[in-house]
Amino acid sequence: MEKNPAAPREPGHEVGDAHGLLLAYLDYYRAVVLAKVDGLSEEELRTSRLPSGWAPVELVWHLAHVERRWLRWGFLGEAVEEPWSDWLHGPDGEKQRWAVPEGVSTPEVLETFRRQVADSRTITADAAPDARAAIGGRFASAGEAPALGWILFHLLQEYARHAGHLDVVRELADGTRGE
Questions:
Q1: What is the mean pLDDT of each run of 10 residues along the chain (179 residues)?
Q2: Pairwise CA distance, residues 74 & 128, whole Å
């Protein structure tokens, strides 16, 4: 079976340094997520096919918030408004599932994701992987503050896991299989 020429491609074998490879794979999985939702109807983007109840557009919204939580609020230590606003909360405040707020359109979700990814690229462009996250924001003490390399690996595993989720959802939606 021939590969789709428009499908995202893994980083080339010439990328040898670990930090560069990590950033390249993050970009690869960011592109995979967008490719997985591309071509789905608005109905499919907002329909859950899983018992947990999340829809593809909600997963993209979640990933935009994940980037913001780990890099702006976490690594930079910036104050961010409602860092967990990608979650629908139950009556006791427990996180139940991802949710896009009422009135936020799919194009707005995708633009939020793209903007946050661009911000994340700027944040990580010149930062050393062993740089520690700022105190404040997400982390209250030096003992909690992870290195940027750890944060980026965490993001990478989250993207890889969620890209797999989208593989399943996309196949259930229209038969399109992941590569």
A1: 61 82 95 96 95 95 97 95 90 88 96 98 95 93 93 97 95 87
A2: 15
